[in-house]
Design a protein that fits this description.
Elements lengths: L5 E6 L2 E6 L46 E6 L19 E3 L7 H13 L2 E5 L9 H9 L18 E7 L7 H7 L8 E8 L7 H8 L4 E2 L3 E4 L7 H10 L14 E7 L2 E7 L3 H7 L4 E8 L3 E5 L18 E5 L4 E5 L13 E6 L12 E8 L1 H4 L1
Parallel strand pairs: 3-5, 3-6, 6-7, 7-8, 7-9
Antiparallel strand pairs: 1-2, 1-4, 10-11, 10-17, 11-16, 12-13, 12-17, 13-15, 14-15, 14-16
Length: about 375
């Protein structure tokens, strides 16, 4: 997916063009913002989303252990033509269409952690009149959930996203939380609001997800959604989540990487880009230490790429940038996470990244296949 797109932010009777040059995968172009406590604008026919709700449902054969469930009024009401008069919401409409704010945040989490996405849908749509929605919600809202999660027992960790309405959960999210047995699971709330914070919604999640360990949630001001990537990354970085598998998986090649005389471990993926880099090994690259986040340098040979790269990174990523013919190891999310050139993931460092934090401005980095791979 490509992420340097120009989005249109609509809200409170205003339109503001935002040019986003982002790196860290925190702005999925087809997942824009819909804040809580206000009416989402209509989805113009020409902007029909290319991120259909149905496509976000968990796969039946999924082996993921993380579920990212979210509720959005955008997906649950029949909006007609957009007018500033019927909306005070902030909505980001991208080239590929528009969905709600919490889908936007769910996309950020998904890009960092993987897992399955799940849109919470009600059996009846809400009306396209926000005051009527507020009245329905205050009255207790008898709608039930139309889209049950099959095999909920397969998920160990469940993120739950929602807009804050009247300082608390929408009734639809209450219905979702009371539909499952949360015993032994980890539940993590995230929410969007219109400037008033999470209210008591985090406490309500803890009450309704009985039996679960509920971790610290995050509350995001909808008006700031295009710029909350670093905030979300920091939040995810301190959550006590299970470590990702660090050993080489099927088709991956184990690497030994020597950085300034110190050895770290890594893997190369089973991909065409990684295969070309593998054919160049062993290789020592003189790398620059840039921005407190990455070391990069030119490879001995250029690598052919196909398709679109990405303008974001995860800590430990080993990437190739065809624009300047460089390989890079990203070791820390930073205050400047934006990439202006597309990179293609080739692998990842699987051992501790602390060796990278005290490097000089220029360093020799040697990549070679681990001994056990060549015996």
């Amino acid at each position: 997916m490509r992420y340097n797109k120009t989005f249109l932010l609509r809200g409170a009777g205003m339109a503001l063009a935002l040019s986003l040059l982002t790196s860290c995968g925190n702005q999925p172009e087809s997942i824009p913002a819909q804040p809580a406590g206000s009416t989402p604008p209509a989805r113009p026919a020409a902007e029909a989303a290319e991120f259909p709700v149905e496509a976000t449902l968990p796969r039946e054969d999924s082996d993921e252990e993380i579920l990212i469930a979210y509720f959005s009024l955008w997906d649950n009401a029949p909006w007609g033509e957009y007018t500033d008069n019927n909306s005070s919401a902030s909505v980001v409409i991208g080239q590929n269409g528009a969905v709600g704010a919490n889908a936007f945040v769910a996309g950020m989490i998904h890009q960092q952690l993987g897992g399955d996405l799940h849109a919470i849908l009600t059996d009846q749509p809400y009306p396209a009149d926000f005051q009527a929605v507020i009245d329905i919600n205050h009255a207790g809202d008898g709608r039930s959930i139309a889209d049950q999660v099959d095999r909920m027992d397969q998920y160990d960790t469940v993120f739950v996203g929602y807009p804050v309405w009247a300082g608390d959960l929408p009734q639809a999210v209450r219905a979702f939380l009371t539909s499952y047995d949360w015993t032994g699971k980890t539940v993590i709330p995230f929410c969007t609001h219109n400037g008033y914070g999470a209210g008591r919604s985090f406490s309500t999640v803890e009450e309704l997800a009985s039996g679960a360990q509920v971790l610290e949630g995050i509350a995001l001001d909808s008006a700031s959604l295009p710029d909350v990537g670093a905030q979300v990354d920091q939040w995810l970085g301190v959550l006590p989540l299970p470590e990702k598998e660090t050993e080489a998986g099927a088709g991956e090649t184990t690497l030994r990487i020597t950085v300034n005389g110190q050895q770290v471990d890594g893997v190369l993926y089973d991909s065409p880009v990684a295969a070309q880099f593998l054919a160049q090994l062993p290789q020592t690259i003189s790398m620059s230490n840039y921005g407190g986040r990455e070391v990069y340098g030119r490879t001995s040979q250029e690598i052919a790429v196909e398709g679109e790269g990405q303008l974001f990174f995860a800590d430990g990523d080993i990437t190739y940038c065809p624009t300047n013919g460089t390989a890079a190891i990203f070791y820390a999310q930073s205050a400047r996470p934006d990439l202006t050139m597309e990179v293609y993931p080739m692998g990842r460092v699987t051992s501790d990244l602390s060796v990278f934090t005290a490097l000089p401005s220029r360093v020799e980095v040697t990549f070679e296949v681990a001994q056990e791979e060549v015996e």
